[in-house]
Design goal:
about 325 residues; alpha/beta; two-stranded antiparallel sheet; 12 helices; binds beta-D-ribofuranose; binds calcium ion
């Protein structure tokens, strides 16, 4: 039986690719896709979720949730990596749906309808999950598992020297989720950055005759240019697509149980993920952290998943 999941995303090119893989994977039933502000502001994130679903047109459309502006001021964004529109400046037309419920409500309603059966796959800041948990304190016990892409274990950050982007954008939300009584797996930069995609990845994409090929060929090239310009790299990371693979093939990852927290107020360290590794540990163990990954298996699975999605989505 397919595993029920909600994808909470801030598209973002790597979010878009993760969605593309999830929507056509027979092992998953995507019950909802909820937008969150992150790579782009809330309105754009919502528009991008609609664009992605419209462009890919999966056989069964998931419920969609609207991102609300975060209450921590003007948040950081990652438009330099994902394009001004978050989708590689591809300029898709989209007929905006009005009256979408907020992401927080969509998540809460889905969990209440199917308590214990739904996993949350969080690929952006944890704003929506924290808001839903705040709204109803019983919700954390209704989640099967939270898998989130974010934080760093031993690696440096990518938005500050010590903070990963998703944690940095909304540290109080990240802290609330990390401290919540749910089963959680954190997929940090340490593992997502181990999987690199060189230019030949573009050649392996399905061609323009397929819906998936057309979509990915429009959004991915910008990220290669951005990585070269900002990091001097000839390859890219697709963090969120790697995190999704953990849900599909957990055996390709090594995880360790940890006692974790998120810095919310440090002058230099806001958004940093911290772990109590003392011999006489004082914090409670509260999540699993992925510390190693079979990067060859994961990158091959992503290429295979794209081909399978292209086949399933058709022309
Ligand atoms: C994370 O930040 C975003 O830019 C990506 O979409 C990913 O979720 C990586 O730090
Ligand atoms: Ca993301």
């Amino acid at each position: 039986m397919a595993r029920k999941v909600i994808l909470d995303v801030d598209p973002g090119v790597d979010d878009a690719l993760a969605l593309c893989l999830a929507l056509f994977d027979p092992r998953l039933e995507v019950v909802a896709v909820t937008a969150v502000a992150g790579n782009v502001p809330a309105d754009q994130a919502t528009r991008n979720v609609q664009t992605i679903i419209e462009q890919l047109d999966p056989p069964r459309w998931p419920r969609l949730g609207r991102a609300l502006p975060s209450d921590v001021g003007e948040p950081a964004n990652a438009r330099h990596i994902h394009g001004a529109d978050g989708l590689g400046n591809a300029r898709f037309d989209v007929a905006e749906l009005h009256h979408l419920h907020s992401s927080e409500k969509v998540i809460a309603d889905a969990l209440r309808t199917d308590p214990g059966d739904i996993s949350l796959i969080c690929l952006g800041p944890l704003t929506n999950i924290a808001a839903a948990f705040r709204r109803d304190p019983a919700l954390p016990s209704m989640v099967d598992r939270v898998v989130f892409m974010g934080g760093t274990y031993l690696a440096p950050g990518n938005i500050t020297p010590v903070a990963e982007f998703n944690m940095y954008v909304d540290p109080p939300a990240a802290r609330a989720v990390v401290q919540s009584r749910t089963t959680k797996t954190m997929i940090p930069l340490d593992v997502t950055s181990k999987v690199s995609f060189t230019y030949d990845f573009l050649d392996q994409l399905p061609d323009d005759t397929s819906r998936v090929g057309r979509f990915l060929r429009r959004i991915l090239p910008f990220v290669y240019r951005a990585y070269r310009q900002h990091y001097g790299l000839e390859s890219i990371h697709l963090h969120d697509a790697v995190a999704l693979q953990y849900v599909l093939e957990p055996d390709w990852f090594l995880t360790e149980e940890m006692a974790a927290d998120v810095e919310v107020a440090g002058e230099l360290t806001t958004g940093a993920t911290l772990f109590d590794r003392r011999v006489n540990r004082q914090w409670r163990l509260n999540l699993e952290v992925a510390t190693r990954v079979d990067n060859a298996a994961v990158s091959q699975a992503i290429v295979r998943g794209i081909r399978q999605a292209a086949h399933a989505a058709g022309a």
